[in-house]
Amino acid sequence: MEVAKLTDVTRKYKIGEVETRALNGVSIIINDGEFTSLIGPSGSGKTTLLQLIGCLDQPSSGKIVINGKDTTNLNRNQRADLRKETIGFVFQFFALIPTLTAYENVEMPLLLNGKNPAERKQRTLELLDAVDMGKRANHRPDQLSGGQQQRVAIARALATNPKLILADEPTANLDTENGEQVMEIMKRLNKDTGATFVFATHDPRVIKYASRVVTLQDGLIVKDSNSK
Question: What is the pTM assigned to this prediction?
Answer without folding.
Answer: 0.90
